[in-house]
# Entry
Amino acid sequence: MKTFRLSRIALVAFAAFLWPVLGAEAAGSRIKDIASLQSGRDNQLIGYGLIVGLQGTGDSLRSSPFTDQSMRAMLQNLGISTQGGQSNAKNVAAVMVTANLPPFSSPGSRIDATVSSLGDATSLRGGTLVMTSLTGADGQIYAVAQGSVIVSGFNAQGQAASVQEGITTSGRVPNGAIIERELPSKFKDSVNLVLQLRNPDFTTAIRIADTVNAYAKATYGGPIAESRDSQEVVVQKPRTADLARLMADIENLQVETDSPAKVVINERTGTIVIGADVRVSKVAVSYGTLTVQVTETPQVIQPEPFSRGQTAIQDQTDIMAAKTGDKIAIVEGPDLRTLVAGLNNIGVKPDGIIAILQGIKSAGALQAELVLQ
# Structure
């Protein structure tokens, strides 16, 4: 017997039927939690290297000729001649090495590096990354990586079966990259601070500028902050101020954030997130789920006695369709708690909430942005 549930959405995987109320009132947040310093961003580094010491899980040199070329070049740089010989080693793998250079990092400090296989290696477990230069977008070398590779995944296989968990062709080298060059710009060389909001919003940007100006009037005697747009707030450095101390004071100021009303729906995972400012005009909602049940009961047919017939199987299929959930309810949501209670009063399971919200939006009654992922 096979049962199919025909619905517009996938099963909503919620831990509980009732959603928790997502903060009825907004609370103040520190500026450091809602904005970042423009000059304090990461810089991406990239390099090409070799991993050695693998237990027969490296690249096939015939299928990955660049691995053979890289290995020969490395040996020649070490003073070892490779002329006239062929290698069938399976303990070497070519990888791309990536890392993020933190802001204000200094030479000698260490950062993590990530390695990812380029060839047909099956596993990087147990390997060691050979010295690899990491360059930035300007082509300059900013770090050098080397060390043992940590791989979280594993695989095991036999003659007729295999099992794998996670990814075995990528891994990390913890603290494996040493910074050799610092960024050309200095923090204290700046004449101002540019704060970038992680969630752009004009209201929040204005509140940040007002909060900083209120602090500056009490400390320096005048305003120093200005909101450029919904994402950037520029803070001018007072002549008598230390830039690092000024940033430390500003990033701990409390600001009440604001955000547009949104409903985020992920139909693949069945996740629904409703913002605190979502409102729903009064609408009537009816939701029904169509269930189709298909039952297969094949019958065996025997031939007549003393006949030359053969035993056969005759198919027999019974199909039953049923529709449930025929209630009609009035839904109105002046606040989040009332909205959630109204949706639950319809009497359907959570797998119908996504379809209901999409229908309410189509009817123009959902006063929020509907984001589908």
In short: The chain has three domains: 2-25+262-372, 43-179, 186-256. Helices lie at 31-34, 65-77, 202-219, 243-250, 336-345, 353-362.
